[in-house]
Amino acid sequence: MWLALLSNDTQSASHKSVSRYSYGCLSVLFMFLNINLGAEPVYPDSQELWVQQVEDRIKKINSGEFDQFEIHGFKRFSPADKDKLKQWVKVGVNATRDTLGVYPSRLIFHLVPKKSNQPVPWAYTRRDNPQRIYLHVDSRFQLEKFINDWTIYHEISHLAIPYLGGNYAWLAEGFASFMQYQVMENAGVLNGTIDENYQKKIAPHLKWFKSDLPPASIARRLMSQKQYPSAYWGSAYFFVVANNILTSEHQTSLTKLIRQYQLCCNAPHGDVAQLMSDLDILLGEPVFSKLLARFETQAARTIYPSEF
Ligand SMILES: [Zn+2]
């Protein structure tokens, strides 16, 4: 049934039909999973084929034109700045989709003028319905400065997984922080290697994790104390570990898994257990649930290296 559904899709399918398609796959996936839940974590060959079909579809979509996003707030900018900002958002959307796949809903941006010493001094996502990305921008900066700035890639990355609630804000920020560099590297706009970038960002915050407390408690405390760089980059280490497990033991990567996740399972709201479970099911093994359990219960000093 799902094969027929896939073969009916055409390359020129609109984003809307992609959404219908993914919901179709969602129900098929869950039918499929109901059969397998509780069984051995070995999935039939057809799942491999399904994953390949989804990947092929993403490539086709990514090679086409992207216009499935909208931008608000242009009337507060000059026509020249409007063109520049539009180009920038388009680059950001294309780069993020190329790395993290097609989003199940339209991306909505709000631009707000803000004089600063950097192109994007402030940004955030609102996870209500519809979800929105707010970008405060100083339009005096050149297009290249905007494209080289990490903020837009970080904000769009947030929407690749559901809103996880305040108790897991640390994990959501760790995810977006990890992903911003994956997107930038893939788009060829990252300065230095990706490992150098993670090292530079994570190493200064390891001191907080030389502790008998679990990393989740430490990260929550850092968030509540507004120590955001420490909370974000300390939490990004969760995804560094996850990605290492995926590449060394599962012949995949976190970005590849998220591209599959977006097509089957991403929704604006969810909970952390559901997210971990969906990723585990796509992978065929409980890697994420186990890793989160370690971050919730095990002493941080046994998980984090003393140097990175
Ligand atoms: Zn963030």
Summarize the structure in words.
With 308 residues, this protein is α/β, with parallel strands linked by helices. The protein has three domains: 2-63; 69-158, no CATH class; 166-302. Helices cover 57% and strands 7% of the residues. The protein is built from 13 helices and four strands. It has helices at 2-7, 15-36, 45-63, 79-100, 143-148, 151-158, 169-187, 194-202, 215-224, 228-249, 254-264, 272-283, 287-297, and strands at residues 69-72, 107-113, 122-126, 132-137. Strands 1-2-4-3 form a four-stranded mixed beta sheet, covered by helices on one side. Strand 1 (69-72), helix 4 (79-100) and strand 2 (107-113) form a beta-alpha-beta unit. The termini are far apart. Residues 1-43 have low confidence and may be disordered. The structure holds zinc ion. Zinc ion (ZN) binds next to helix 6 and helix 7.
